[in-house]
């Protein structure tokens, strides 16, 4: 099984289009999205429609959560909240209905998929949780591997039954140990925040026990102009560089 996992596309269709092309060349069996397909970017409706057209299962992200449950808008900082209110206006009724049906998590292929923090939170950031709490979660999880997004930064968190360890997920092949459990942050397609502005996603090879990090260039300038044309905050445009 070769499974592509994408996250945090954030309405960036230019990045998503190039990632889909790279996935097509990479001979994968399935694709799963970890949510935040919308928000920040200029083409949220087009992204959602392409997620549907490609039959990509997707969990709910914090941005989707705010669309279907407006009480969560207060969770966001003022700039992100302004962006979300404009994003909602850019979404078709069909896309909103699709978003409203997304689940908090998925369990498939022996793995767990959640946007923020397992078992099912779209809001909690991994860095907000103590190691002792992480150990409790690792011990409770039936799945050996959990994929997350939310921070937009690639990371490998492993647990051997005693100690939680943190390691980077580097571009290329990263090998997993059969003796450990993992929470793997797959980074962001549409708005990386790791100092490398290329779109990121990963491929899990279940037979070889590896995670391959893919870094895909796209036309950032085109997306920046679309953000400005849509009247979205300038901060979202500048962050892409």
Reconstruct the topology from this structure.
Elements: E1 2-6, H1 13-25, E2 30-33, H2 44-53, H3 62-68, H4 78-90, H5 93-100, E3 105-108, E4 111-114, H6 131-140, E5 145-148, E6 155-159, E7 164-167, E8 172-175, E9 181-185, E10 199-205, E11 210-216, H7 220-229, H8 234-239
Word description of this protein:
The protein is α/β, with parallel strands linked by helices and 241 residues long. It has one domain: 4-Layer Sandwich (Purple Acid Phosphatase, chain A, domain 2), CATH 3.60.21.10. It is built from eight helices and eleven strands. The chain has helices at residues 13-25, 44-53, 62-68, 78-90, 93-100, 131-140, 220-229, 234-239, and strands at residues 2-6, 30-33, 105-108, 111-114, 145-148, 155-159, 164-167, 172-175, 181-185, 199-205, 210-216. Strands 3-4-5-9-6-7 form a six-stranded mixed sheet. The chain has a five-stranded mixed sheet with strand order 2-1-10-11-8. Strand 10 (199-205) and strand 11 (210-216) form a beta hairpin. The protein starts with a strand and ends with a helix.
Note the main attributes of this structure.
8 helices, alpha/beta, 22% strand, single chain, 5-stranded mixed sheet, Purple Acid Phosphatase, chain A, domain 2, globular, 241 residues, 6-stranded mixed sheet
